[in-house]
Amino acid sequence: MSGLAAGEPRIETVSDLEWLRARVAGWKRDGLRVGFVPTMGNLHAGHHSLVRLARAHADKVVASIFVNPTQFGPNEDYSRYPRTPDADVAGLQAAGCDLAWIPSVETMYPYGLEGVVQVRVPGVTGVLEGAHRPGHFDGVATVVARLFHQVGPDVAVFGRKDYQQLAVIRYMVRELAFPLDIVAGETQREPDGLAMSSRNQYLSAEERAIAPRLHRTLLDLRDAVRAGESPAQAEAAARAALDGAGFEVDYIVVRHPDLAEAGEGDARRAGGGASRARVALVAARLGRTRLIDNLEFSVD
Ligand code: PAF
Question: Where in the sequence is the domain holding 208, given as residue range(s)?
């Protein structure tokens, strides 16, 4: 049973690189623009919205499903990361994806994990997520560069929830002159404000009830900074609120959009023409589950 309505176009599921390249080359010969959404599978409504966004920017959409071993640290959840390919492909189809690219580890890393040619993005990878998950962004940049070479898209879509990942990808695309556009998709949230994430399913019922405080605290942090509190003071209050709710906080900070620190003199500098844009970012653990979120705002 495919679950497809009669006449509905069937998504193509491809694991062979030559096949993928032939299909995309055919589309390009026909003058079609190709959109791409990289994923690690276990897809939810947030991923589906990225596919719909890719559709709005392209004639054909490819989504990849690949749980990338090189972006997980030794104590992270690579082996228990949920793998749900059948449901993922059905969801991609419903969202308007034309082709699901599902490479094996051998296709992605033909010389094995010891023989990986790495892409390392400097600067932005050393702070926040990069500082708490050493090597994570090297793994992300390494796999995304390969995926771009494999798929050859005209446009690729990434979610804003992974704010720092988006910055890393933009830097890499510019530095390595990948001939494609990057489009950012809005974070999708549950009705109570919790950002959608594959990791939410690890939360116990009790943790799930607490989890929306993450977004609430970002909103409070934004309001405090807008009301004139210094970032340091507002960050300390936000951290205390999360500690009190039962989170173990890795960081909760206010930064400039390029992730440079937002200091106390910023309001005065802003008067001198500097950007008023800010982003508040948080990473915190509830039990065994590590959640991240962010909120972009302006201090006008
Ligand atoms: O955001 C993700 O799901 C992953 O980091 C990505 C971009 C698919 C690379 O493995």
Answer: 198-298
Give residue 9's pLDDT. Answer: 67
User: Residue 102: inside a domain, yes or no?
Assistant: yes
**Residues 150 and 22 grouped into a single domain:** yes
Q: Is residue 143 part of a domain?
A: yes
- Name which of 11-15, 72-76, 159-163, 267-271 the model is least confident about: 267-271
Minimal-distance CA residue to ligand 1 atom 5: 140
Q: Kindly report the protein residue whose alpha carbon is nearest to atom 3 of ligand 1.
A: 39
Q: 57 an active-site residue?
A: no
Q: Would you say the CB of residue 140 lies under 6 angstroms from ligand 1?
A: yes
Any atom of ligand 1 within 6 Å of the Cβ of 37: no
Same domain, 237 and 148: no
Q: Are residues 19 and 158 in the same domain?
A: yes
Q: What is the pTM of this model?
A: 0.93
- pLDDT bucket at 75, cuts 50 / 70 / 90: confident
Task: Report the CATH number that the domain containing residue 87 is assigned in CATH.
Answer: 3.40.50.620
Contact 89, 47 (CB under 8 A): no
Closest atom of ligand 1 to 64 CA is 8
Is residue 2 in some structural domain?
A: no
**Based on the domain organization, do 83 and 129 belong to the same domain?**
yes
Out of 165, 188, 197, mutate this one to test ligand 1's pocket (max ligand atoms within 8 Å of CB): namely 165
What are residue 75's phi and psi, to 5 degrees? -100, 15
Say if ligand 1 is within 6 A of residue 68 CB.
Answer: yes
Q: Which of 209, 204, 202, 221 is nearest to 291 (CA)?
A: 202
C-alpha distances in Å from residue 52, one per residue of 58, 148, 190: 10, 19, 18
Our measurement of the distance from residue 157's CA atom to the centroid of its chain's CA atoms, rounded to an integer in Å, reads: 9
259 within ligand 1 shell (Cβ under 6 A) = no
